[in-house]
Amino acid sequence: MKGQGRGLQAYALLYLLFLYAPIILLPLFAFNSGTIIAFPLQGFTTDWFSQMWANATLRTALTNSLIIAVSAAILATCLGIFAARASTRFEFPGKGGMMGFILLPMVLPEIIVAMSLLVVLLGAGVQLSILTVIVGHVLICMPYAIAILTTAFSSLDKSLEEAAYDLGETRWSAFRLVTLPLVMPGIISSLLISFTISLDEFIIAFFLAGNQPTLPTYIFSQLRFPKQIPMIMALGTVLVALSIVLLALGEYFRRRGNARMGGNPTGGFL
Amino acid sequence: MTDDRKPMIECRGVHKHYGDYHALRGIDLTIRAGEFFSLLGPSGCGKTTLLRTIAGFEDISEGAILIDQKHMEEVPANKRPTNMVFQSYAIFPHLTVAQNVAFGLRRDPRGKAEKAALVEEALAMVGLRGYGNRAAHALSGGQRQRVALARALILKPKVLLLDEPLSALDRKMREQMQVELIKLQRQVGITFVLVTHDQEEALVMSDRIAVMFEGEIAQLDGPEALYARPASRRVADFIGVMNFLPAHILGESDGVATVEAPGLGVVELPARQISRANPDDEGPTIGFRPETMTLVGPNQAHSQPRETNATIDEVVYYGDMTYYDLRLDGAAAIDGKAHTVRISMRNVFGRDVQEVGTRTRLAWSPGSLVLFR
């Protein structure tokens, strides 16, 4: 009886190894003084990190990506709040179809979204820039934002806002004082997910950025130069570390929010 | 008895349509100041809709609503002199108990200390003194209910609206809160309007009750009148238990009807025992409550003017009470149907619970009968 779970245990371990081993390799080679990505490891160095820090193009790409990701996350989440509140609070004709079409980009191949956007933008004579990337990213982040926020809004008791209104608040202040704090965990989740999706998005950024680099397009362009690869490893290490911090932060806020509201989760996603 | 008090809420020909659905069909209603008033009816009868139109959460399609002699059509819910206790209590889970209770004072110009004193006073009134710093989400159902009451009453509204406030509580808690609500209402003197589907709750708490079916008021009366003299068979059936027997009207003069009912024989009923609103179109019917008739033993004396022999068909034992289903002698001879009636007896000391199949006598008075025609 005891040995029965062994096979499954080994399978699970192998699976996790397959998932995470490549990521563990990143920091190994980022601190390795050899210029070729191969074992055995040579010596310890932080040169790649200083090289990365000194790289002006990389910094531009990083700045661009951060501007795009922050803007896309805020825009998608704001629009998502409107859509989620409307779909959970009100009945209107064509609601089902409308919500379906808003969520469609989630399953639409990104290359199709990118291509059609490019054609439309060029046709309209819009200059390609990080602005156009933001537009594209809002489009693909929206479905995720709405999915998260709809869960948050639908778990709210409708009477809460009515009670605040009944107690003398206006419609807007009732929303601000009651609904907004209660869906805040959902809003934070939506911001984080949108930010992450936008930050590592490649196809739309590649098509719509014009000659502006973003982090993914820059990394892709550098992979052609073997000399640059250790530096990309260092960059990857920093990104992994940042993701972990971000995730932990998101989870912390979600748990704190839940604890304050008596363990009634409102749309946590992480 | 309360007729001299001024009207607090007046509904005049109130209609409400939701698309094709006619939710309120001409409600005319006057609720007086200081009254404990209940809207009673089955779900979907429009009682909650009526409450929400009074609160201002729903517009009315036709008619007028006045609160304290002022028209309310142009007054939004947040400006009306009403406050509501919601069915779910709608306690703000991210705030403390004190912050919940003080919520309505946000726009009040009074100072912080003064407001804190008001909050403490409101909490004391509902029996939650010292609970101010607790997290609202950690409260029990009964405590949430009290916070909701304190939160609404702190604004000293002219009318407190209560939407099925006790339906989420267990039986013991509900009975306790019923008594507390009555006391609270007497103490603050505010007009209470309660929506409930629980007839017992309405009878226990209200000065007057409006029974509603399908968007209309079927009867508006005090609890005793409602129970003893229901205006229609439907009202009688909804409030408590009532036995119905098909009646045959033999004659009528000076308002007194001579009626024959299976098993009961011929009785004469004065006008006050006759209800002429019988929209169900079931033909004349005699009704009586289970507790108005008494089972008596073979040689037991009784003071009732009439008695009928019967056989016990079913016994349902409730501890303090026993329900007996009886077949009345001679009832089947009228139309070939076995007319069983339900009688309730208190299980007082010394009275044995009877067994199924026992022959027994039923003692009763024509004064407890109601004729629906």
Automatic annotation (TrEMBL), chain A:
One Pfam assignment: BPD_transp_1
Family matches, as PANTHER family: PUTRESCINE TRANSPORT SYSTEM PERMEASE PROTEIN POTI (PTHR43848:SF2)
Organism name: Paracoccus acridae
Location(s), subcellular: Cell membrane
Transmembrane segments: 12-41, 61-84, 96-124, 130-156, 177-209, 229-250
Name of the molecule in the record: Spermidine/putrescine ABC transporter
UniProt keyword terms in alphabetical order: Cell membrane, Membrane, Transmembrane, Transmembrane helix, Transport
Keyword field contains Hydrolase: no
Membrane-topology descriptor: Multi-pass membrane protein
Residues annotated as domain ABC transmembrane type-1: 62-250
Annotated family: Belongs to the binding-protein-dependent transport system permease family. CysTW subfamily.
Gene3D superfamilies: MetI-like (1.10.3720.10)
UniProtKB/TrEMBL annotation, chain B:
Residues of the ABC transporter domain: 9-239
Keyword Nucleotide-binding among UniProt keywords: yes
InterPro entries hit by this protein: AAA+_ATPase, ABC_SmlMolc_Importer, ABC_transporter-like_ATP-bd, ABC_transporter-like_CS, Mo/tungstate-bd_C_term_dom, P-loop_NTPase, Transp-assoc_OB_typ2
Keywords: ATP-binding, Nucleotide-binding, Transport
Pfam family, one: ABC_tran
Name of protein: Polyamine-transporting ATPase
